[in-house]
Amino acid sequence: MSSHYCPHTPEEMREMLAVIGVQSVEELFAPIPAELRAKTFNLPPGMSEFETFAAMQGIAADNQRDLSLFIGGGFYDHLIPAVVDHLAGRAEFYTAYTPYQPECSQGTLQALFEYQSAICRLTGLDVSNASLYDGATALAEGAMMALRVTNRHRLLVDGCINPFARKVLRTYLANLDVEIVELAPLDGLLNREELAAELDDRTAAVLVQYPNMFGCVEDFSAVAQEIHAAGGLLVTAAYPVALGILKSPAEMGADIAVGDGQSLGNPLSFGGPSFGFIAARKAFIRNMPGRIVGETVDKNGKRGFVLTLQAREQHIKRHKATSNICSNQSLCALRGLIFLTAIGKTGLADLARLNRDKAEYAKSVLATVPGVTVLQTAPTFNEFTVSLPKPAAPVVAALLEKGIAAGVPLGQYYEGAESLLVVTVTEKRSKVEIDLLARMLEEALCN
Amino acid sequence: MQLIYEQSVPGRRGVMLPTSDVPLAPHLPVHLLRSEVAALPEVSELDMVRHFTNLSRRNFSVDTNFYPLGSCTMKYNAKVLENAANLFASLHPMTALLPGGSAVCQGALGMLYDLGQWLADVTGMDEVTTQPLAGAHGEMTGIMLIAAYHKAKGNRKKYVVVPDSSHGTNPASAAMVGYEIITIPTAPYGDMDLELYKQAMNNEVAAVMMTCPNTLGLFNPHIKEIADIAHSFDALMYYDGANLNAIMGKVRPGDVGFDVIHLNLHKTFGTPHGGGGPGAGPVGVKKGLAPFLPMPRIVLDEQSGDLLLELDNPATIGRTASFFGNFGVMVKAYAYMLMLGRAGLVQVSEQAVLNANYIKERLKPWYELPFDLTCMHECVFSASKQLAHGVHAIDIAKFLIDKGYHPPTVYFPLIVKEAIMIEPTETESKATLDAFIEVMIEAASLAESDPAAFADMPRTMPVTRLDETKAAREQQVCCSG
Predict the structure, then answer these.
(1) Which of A339-343, B226-230, B411-415 bottoms out in mean pLDDT, i.e. has the lowest?
(2) Which residues from A are below 8 Å from B34, CB to CB?
(3) Strand (E) or helix (H) holding B8
(4) Does the pLDDT at position A40 exceed 90?
(5) Which residue of B125, B133, B371, B412 is the best one to mutate when testing the A interface, meaning the one whose CB has the most A CBs within 10 A?
(6) For B415-431, how does the pLDDT look when each residue is reduced to its tens digit (9 = 90+)?
(7) CATH number for the B81-338 domain, one of 3.40.640.10, 3.90.580.10, 3.30.450.20, 1.10.10.10?
(8) CA proximity to B185, closest of B166, B163, B208, B218
(9) How far is CA A204 from the centre of its chain?
(10) Does the structure show a pLDDT above 80 at A81?
(11) Which structural domains are found in chain A, ordered by start?
(12) A116 contact residues in B (CB cutoff 8 A)
């Protein structure tokens, strides 16, 4: 019987088997030695799409989905214009393959070229690839790119970078001959004295992030000058919505810029899929990881787009490739482009300011809660750190039971930070929610 | 077509933002601000809707065209899977990592746990991590696990062995983890040369990476022997799951000696390719490697039935991605497995293999078949007969585009000259296969009668053949302005 997505009727199967010259489908599996054949296979029996969807609704309902989210940590609860789902949801985009055959893939190729252009314009840098997996792996790829460019083996990593991203970086480099020096944060900022002491002519790159894990925004222009003087590179990780107003990586002197693109039109979706972006100075293009779309012309001189500089990639260079990446997060990058197009040039700056306004309001309200102090060492964007009069973890757990994800406690990620809480406020949080957060926090702290 | 940037008009707005309900904050210090606003498009919503809709129409896709793309398993992607993934859109991954957070994410954690159990069942493995974000990412994670295993045992290992027919990601992933590569040639019988393999093996080999069935679509009958030899040197067997669509319910990699496996959910388990991603590359391991799996690890508390998160342990390789993997892709794969069930997945593999053998038999008189054996889910031809008339595999590919077919994979595997690698998948009807076969025969006939006709194909697409040399030379990878 034909079933689900296997369309053959028994009659058709008989005809096909006759052409092949076998009696049964089972005969086609004869090359698999009998003693190797599967003995167990215990999946449940199948069901219709209707029963399947109902089961999925049940699973979805077993999560608390209406939390008031004041958490970030790399993923952010932003508005997504309706056009993003509708346009990226066109099957001609989402059921297409990697555009290796350019003539029948101009839609994907031009869209990725426009995406690369958007990333270049946001970061101020010259070249972008067609996406990486996520922000954390993009940081690791950016670091490895800096190691290749400089042919050095030492990295200075700001401890204010997102702890998951630092963990991924360490995991990627664990089996390679690379020295990673992590600089412990100083009041939520890069420890510049320690950086100066560690910086030498063996250092491939300094890795920093803005806004950082504490929410602080720093200008790394001076750091760029110092590392350049030592012959190394500056790699910055950045939150793309914040780049609507913040100094661009290029303006700070960054050589390589990376980040997570989730905030650009991709749903939270329990952590994925999102996309990682990477941009760099033009001189480094041959050291870029992953796919790159380039402009060219066809035989008639008409503009068209192709995957270019493929000699960097694994399907050509195998073990000598700049990275092993093959599939990237193309559709998520397309969502990023559609988001940036819908929000537009002035819209992104407005969106960034709206985020900051909400966060500054939340800061002012939380500062009035007895015992709570706001970390004031640097300006912030839409995240900031507060110090509570007691350990943050049980307070967060108590508020979670009341439907509020109040922030990310830092004790798990930094020594001696048990009382610190990072609060994130995007444009989606209303004044009412912010006021409620303050009230509930006050209540939780009294208990 | 114009670029979206070329349609910009200064001052034009797309989507309106909500009105603020809080006071304006004082400006940031000037030294932290960008000197000018990023030059993003300034277009109306209708402008952009037309632009991206028209762009989409310049693509082939599974929903519009047959895609017999070898090694890529371009099967139909069921629509209900997309609906299922949307149910989880608003779930923040940090929630699960907050104190008390796993309690409010039991559905999502349970789904990931069950998916891992099911994938372990299909592959004969003991435990699965869903963290890797794509197939190659899974390969790298798997090789890291192998490196951690050897390190823990005090083994000094230097090499990873791959056959020359392997996907390029295999040696590239092993190199990312610091290994040197030993490449074994393919024997005339279509599989890794067993004698050369035996000669190459030594105590410094960390792992042998195999695709089975291999990229010629052939099941390696010596696989058990290859695994036994590897294990005798304490080298582990790595299974590249790209071709799992051929063998579900028929043979389990874990039963034939593989220790580590990655799966491409966007191939075998019906999730869409998205024009190059997102995929998902879960990794399965045998018990002995489980302690090294990346964090966070989802653990079932047998007593309470609750799912908990293990955040760290001394043996773990660490973390290979920010959170729990490409969760949205996992939802689709889970729903796919739930819907098809045991019998459905077996039928998938049976019909995928039937379709490939049907095409192989029917095209055999027209195209050279370098390895004339019963194939699994894909078959590899060579355009060598056509080359005698000056027609290359790429020319046949472009001919197919004009006929409305996405071309098969060409020039891979590298070991077959002028390779044409066809993978029909199980979701295509006999009528579709027959029509494709007729067009392939037409191409073969045309190669004999009028080889010059191929030169300017394709003719029906928005562009003709593109100048790739110019693209590589000029490196125009973003638009100016």
Answers:
(1) B411-415
(2) 124, 243, 245-248, 251
(3) none
(4) no
(5) B133
(6) 899 999 999 999 999 99
(7) 3.40.640.10
(8) B163
(9) 24
(10) yes
(11) 68-78+346-446 (3.90.1150.10), 82-343 (3.40.640.10)
(12) 477-478
